[in-house]
Amino acid sequence: MYDVLVIGGGPGGRALSRACAQEGLSTAIVDRQPHRVWTATYGAWADELPHGTPVAATSTRVRAYAREEHEIERTYVVLDNARLHELPETVTVLQRPAPARHTFNATGARKGRAEQTAVGTVIESDSTEATLMDWRGGDTFLYTVPLGGNQVLVEETCLARRPGMPLAELRERLDARQLPGVREERVRFPLDAPRQKNAFGAAAGFIHPATGYSVATSLALAPRVAAAIKAGEDPWQVIWSRKARAVHALRRFGLESLLRMDAEQTRDFFEVFFRLPPELQRAYLSGREDLAGTTAAMLALFRAAPARLRVKLVLRA
């Protein structure tokens, strides 16, 4: 019997498998396609990641556009998929589940009702600057991030819609920008999928309901979960602490607010958000257990919002 069995060989599952093996736990992972190449692009804020996380590209200048241009005082990175995919020899790769003291489902999020969707293209460019959001084109935004090797990903993104905006429509919008892309990337995942017990990563509900990010959370939590197992503690208390559950509830409230906004209101929202002090922006975007910071950010945004936007922030659908 293994100490730990992880079902699912994506970034979250492999991060947890690595961390458990490094703690000396006998670890196995179920991955029916262990040599599959990951084609998705995983971006993250550098200050969210554990030391030594492999990075393919770094942007020290990050901008966002709502009504005006904003410079974000954080470093943004694209993760190195090939190195994230690696496992130590002490991790056993299986084709089917086996008995274990702790089993984690890391197969991804279940279907939700609200989705983030995007269609991107990779263009040739030596730019090292990232644009987190460019809302100047309507009810979708352009996400631009360097990948390294003189390549840049440009994505037409629908942040949140119930149901998600069709990929065909996003592709038409991207095509209208006439970008000479060399390959296409498609994104679709739920923002409100339910948390699953005995799970890790997106399957455990790690997806930020108002931004869609989850991989950095998996990478950061994996060593803590492994340490808890090694110490004989309940790993679920690490995965979903009381503060993390409270912050997630506030983020879900934020998602519902975004879903009620039209294009103009969305631009107003992000104009106010990116004018907040950097520490409050970071608390809302990255403070998974920062209940005080998340609350302070939401209150500050509400106070600074114009009256027409406040209605959308407080009324329920």
Structure, described:
It is a single chain. This protein has about 325 residues and is an alpha/beta fold. The protein has three domains: about 110 residues, FAD/NAD(P)-binding domain; about 120 residues, D-Amino Acid Oxidase, Chain A, domain 2 (2-Layer Sandwich); about 70 residues. The chain is about 35% helix and about 25% strand. It is built from ten helices and 14 strands. The protein has a four-stranded parallel β-sheet, covered by helices on one side. A four-stranded antiparallel β-sheet has the order 12-13-10-14. The protein has a three-stranded antiparallel β-sheet with strand order 3-7-4, with no helix packed on it. Helix 1 links the parallel strand 1 and strand 2. Helix 1 packs parallel to helix 4, helix 6 runs parallel beside helix 9 and helix 8 crosses helix 9. The longest helix is centred in the C-terminal third of the chain and has 18 residues. The radius of gyration is 20 Å and the shape is globular.
Q: Biggest β-sheet: count, sense, barrel? A: 4 strands, parallel
CATH class of the largest domain equals Alpha Beta
How far apart lie the N and C ends?
Answer: 49 Å
CATH architect. name of the largest domain: 2-Layer Sandwich
How many E-type strands? 14
Q: Supply the number of helical segments.
A: 10
Any low-confidence stretches, pLDDT <50, length ≥5?
none
Strand content: 25-35%
Q: Could you say how many structural domains there are in total?
A: 3
Instruction: Going across the biggest sheet, name each strand in turn.
Output: 8-2-1-9
N-to-C SSE series?
Answer: EHEEEEEEHEEEEEEHEHHHHHHH
> What average pLDDT do the residues reach?
95
The assigned structural class equals alpha/beta
Fold-level CATH name of the largest domain: D-Amino Acid Oxidase, Chain A, domain 2
Outline, from the CA principal axes? Answer: globular
- The radius of gyration is 20 Å
Percent helix, as a range, is: 25-40%
